[in-house]
Amino acid sequence: MKQDYQKVVNQLTSRDIYSVDTRGKPTTVDMYYNHIGKVLSISNKLEHLSSVGFYRAGQLLNKAKKELKGDFGKLKKILSNKGLHIKQQERYMKIARNKKINLLYNQLPPEWTFW
Questions:
Q1: What letter does residue 71 receive in the DSSP assignment?
Q2: Distance CA 94, CA 74 (A)
Q3: 83: number of Cβ within 10 Å
Q4: 86-97 vs 29-68: helix axis angle to the nearest 10?
Q5: Dihedral, CA atoms, 6, 11, 13, 15, nearest 10 degrees?
Q6: Is the dihedral of CA 114, 4, 19, 37 positive or negative?
Q7: In whole angstroms, what is the distance from residue 97 CA to residue 63 CA?
Q8: Reported pTM
Q9: Gap between the terminal Cα atoms of the chain
Q10: Measured between alpha carbons, how far is 57 from 92 in angstroms, rounded to an integer?
Q11: In the structure, what pLDDT confidence band is assigned to residue 15 with cuts at 50, 70 and 90?
Q12: Which pLDDT score, from 0 to 100, does residue 39 have?
């Protein structure tokens, strides 16, 4: 998984991955098809990695709630101030607590996301 992530990150550091500049490229169906396919492939990989991140964030939030006790509210407020809304934190926690998802998580197809 880490190698896949690093590969995606390396592809994203390429300055032209999301560029719509077509100067110097042939104006053909194949050129557009290949470029669009490349952009969508990278985006789909990132979406899958994000889904894993949402699940893991929910697991960490649940663990923090158990271990931090009274200070958990402080953590939630800090995360909220950084852009992770409290309701979204609660959604992630609920997903991570779901026993069926927990049992089947590794068997879920990449298309199944938490978006």
A1: G
A2: 19
A3: 7
A4: 80
A5: 180
A6: negative
A7: 10
A8: 0.61
A9: 20
A10: 7
A11: low
A12: 72
Cα distance between residue 76 and residue 63, in whole Å: 13
Alpha helices in the chain (DSSP H): 2-12, 29-68, 72-81, 86-97, 99-104
How far is Cα 64 from Cα 60, in angstroms, rounded to an integer?
6
User: Which single residue is written with the structure tokens 């200070």?
Assistant: 71
CB 64 within 8 A of CB 75: yes
Q: Residue 38: which pLDDT band, with cuts at 50, 70 and 90?
A: confident
Q: State the pLDDT confidence band at 93, using cuts at 50, 70 and 90.
A: very high
Residue whose structure tokens are 């407020």: 77
Q: What is the pLDDT of residues 40-83, one digit of tens each?
A: 777 777 776 677 778 888 999 999 999 998 899 999 999 999 99
Q: What tokens does 43 get? A: 């985006």
- Amino acid letter at 109? P
* Residue 78, token pair as written in the block: 């800090």
